[in-house]
Design goal:
By secondary structure, the protein is α/β, with parallel strands linked by helices. It has 27 helices and ten strands. Helix 4 runs antiparallel to helix 5, helix 4 packs across helix 7 and helix 14 packs parallel to helix 16. It is globular.
């Protein structure tokens, strides 16, 4: 057996003479219920030898460690080293070790044999250093890691550790969820089962330990511990590749040490920002592919996660020069090639990645209403990439960035209208790359947006497209099929607030966009309570049965008959008569409130409101205007379906 590896160690042997620290450049705790359950089931599936009555060994994975230099150990913890023990960074295996520590803490806390608890804590969790019971933890994060205090306070219940108010992120949420999951599962066990669980953990789980020499950087030695672990992301594997390549550079040891720190610092920042939202971590591989699109041209608009993985490992391999710099469809043998991997290439990439991640986080968790509106219209990776690039210029060109965002919102709303699109949204990634690489100025981009908005409006094409939306037999029809409808109704709601209900507070806010419903005022199932209204609309129209069927489809699904609701109304209310609906609408959104002012909700009311909404639509799109005839056609398709006045 090589001296840098030990095998078949039981858990107590793993912890003997060691203190484990999680380096702060690694992503935080990422396991979820699937991984917890797999580990839990693995432990309970371990079989007992029929002769020896001992549990069969169960290989639980490989843990890769790198010894921490003495000068990097906090002075108050050196006593542990001076007693013949060592400190190690957990280079690989932190997810499983963290999970086992949480499981052990919860098991020991409710273990039925009180006299054993202190010994178990002393072996696996922490040692009390003095009479004041100051704890020395055998497993924790690096003391500079922002999640360290949370782990010790919330998970290991150490009240001496102070967690900053409101400090939560996706990693701390995962830690809390794991603690709750194991606490619940262990609490359901009988005392006998708790003893059995501890015996299985202590006697059956075995590990292999690999040690990385101090003169070798953390390299690509990372694999999941078994096929049930959480696979490494491309981002994690890339960091390990960069560290591996750094160790092989011909530069001095001092320069390689500086570069390794630069890579680790970059990844620390990346993981910090990707995990800032406590509800959901931003996708690592999507972020990597988005950033790659800024510095290399993909074959199609932006890199997919799969092609990004392929490309970054072409960029950072021993023979990088054999690959084209870009991945365009027209690549030729004499195209620019990837530069060889050297100090400058690694450092520039790491710094650029770290510089970009705050803007990517900001756009994906934006407090700027305009940005959120744009993303409601177009949440594609290409759009988010463009917005993040624009935001990156905010420190130096704030006014111009804000003007670009304002114009971009107008462009995207226009793009949502049938036959009115002025730009292929997939080209936004190209614009972002040109801005990022300073191939195009912000002034030039602003001018291009102005030019797009100045393109003439194809009103007849728009009318024709809206007419076609009434032809669908199944699913949404007419204006209800327009992808931008809810956005427009929200904007109309704001318009009513500013023009008719100024003294009232907002009733529907953009934060509730996803939860906001659209309702047909005159219901689709009108037969029970609205027959008279429909009959009056059809009266005087000489039409076949098929045409009458189409006329009903039009009046129900035209723009003026659609509104957003302040609260979700149940299915019974949708088909209630006008008198009942009207009372509910008086406490609803501004749109509902305006509708409730009508004595009757009939064809004339629907037409009047529809024309008001089309006038507002005209104000939202530069150069858009409708004749009176065009308004009627937009709302009711053709003369035979117009409302009789």
């Amino acid at each position: 057996m090589a001296n840098n590896e030990t095998t078949d160690l039981k858990l107590a042997q793993v912890f003997a003479t060691k203190a484990f620290r999680i380096p702060d450049y690694q992503r935080g705790y990422a396991w979820g219920e699937r991984q917890w359950n797999d580990l839990w089931e693995d432990i309970w599936d371990i079989t007992e030898d029929s002769v020896s009555k001992e549990y069969q060994p169960h290989f639980t994975g490989t843990i890769t460690l790198k010894e921490i230099n003495k000068d990097a150990i906090p002075s108050e913890e050196l006593w542990f080293r001076e007693r013949g023990n060592n400190f190690y960074d957990v280079v690989d295996g932190q997810q499983r070790l963290t999970t086992l520590e949480i499981m052990l803490f919860e098991l020991i806390k409710c273990y039925p044999d009180e006299e054993e608890k202190e010994d178990l804590r002393n072996i696996y969790l922490f040692k009390n250093r003095n009479a004041a019971n100051t704890r020395f933890y055998l497993f924790s994060y690096n003391r500079n890691d922002k999640n360290q205090a949370f782990l010790l306070n919330h998970v290991f219940e150490d009240n001496t550790m102070i967690v900053p108010d409101g400090y939560i992120n996706v990693y701390t949420n995962n830690l809390t969820a794991a603690k709750n999951w194991f606490s619940e599962h262990i609490s359901l066990l009988s005392d006998e089962k708790k003893r059995d669980l501890l015996r299985r953990i202590q006697t059956a789980l075995v590990f292999d330990i690999k040690y990385i020499s101090n003169n070798v950087s953390e390299q690509a030695v990372f694999e999941t511990m078994n096929n049930r672990g959480k696979p490494l992301s491309t981002l994690e594997k890339l960091k390990n590749r960069l560290l591996f390549l750094t160790a092989k550079l011909p530069d001095s040891l001092e320069d390689r040490t500086i570069l390794s720190k630069m890579v680790n610092d970059a990844w620390r920042k990346v993981y910090d920002y990707l995990g800032k939202n406590p509800e959901k971590m931003l996708d690592e591989d999507e972020f990597l592919s988005a950033h790659l699109t800024l510095i290399r041209a993909p074959e199609y608009y932006s890199f997919s996660e799969q092609l990004a993985e392929k490309k970054v490992f072409e960029m950072f391999c021993v023979r990088a020069q054999q690959y084209s710099f870009n991945c365009t469809k027209l690549a030729k043998d004499d195209d620019e090639r990837e530069p060889a991997v050297d100090y400058a290439k690694i450092s520039q990439y790491a710094q650029d990645l770290a510089n970009f991640v705050p803007y990517w986080h900001e756009v994906n968790n934006s407090e700027d209403l305009r940005i959120n509106k744009i993303l409601l219209l177009n949440g594609s990776k290409e759009m988010r990439l463009l917005l993040a690039t624009l935001v990156s210029f905010r420190d130096k060109q704030s006014d111009l960035v804000n003007k670009c965002i304002d114009l971009l919102l107008k462009v995207e709303f226009r793009n949502s209208l049938p036959s009115m699109s002025v730009v292929d949204e997939r080209t936004y990634a190209t614009r972002a790359r040109e801005l990022h690489n300073l191939e195009e100025s912000l002034e030039d981009f602003h001018h291009k947006l102005e030019q797009l908005l100045a393109v003439g409006c194809n009103v007849e094409g728009m009318i024709g497209q809206f007419k076609s939306l009434f032809e669908y037999e199944r699913g949404n029809k007419g204006f209800h099929r327009w992808s931008g409808l809810k956005f427009f109704l929200m904007e109309f709601e704001q318009h009513l607030h500013e023009t008719r209900f100024m003294n009232d507070s907002s009733r529907v806010i953009w934060d509730n966009f996803d939860a906001t419903n659209i309702e047909h005022v005159l219901p689709q199932s009108f037969q029970d309570n609205w027959n008279d209204i429909v009959s009056n609309y059809l009266r005087g129209k000489e039409m076949s049965d098929d045409e009458k069927h189409r006329a009903v489809k039009i009046i129900v699904n035209t723009l003026g008959n659609l509104t957003i609701l302040r609260y979700s109304k149940n299915s019974e209310l949708q088909n209630k008569p006008w008198a009942v609906k009207r009372e509910h609408y008086k406490a609803g959104s501004f749109s509902e409130l305006a509708i409730s002012e009508k004595e009757a909700w009939d064809g004339c009311a629907i037409r009047e409101r529809g024309i008001e909404m089309l006038d507002f639509l005209s104000s939202m799109v530069q150069g858009l205007s409708f004749t009176e005839r065009q308004k009627e056609e937009l709302l009711f398709v053709s003369d035979k379906y117009f409302v009789n006045q």
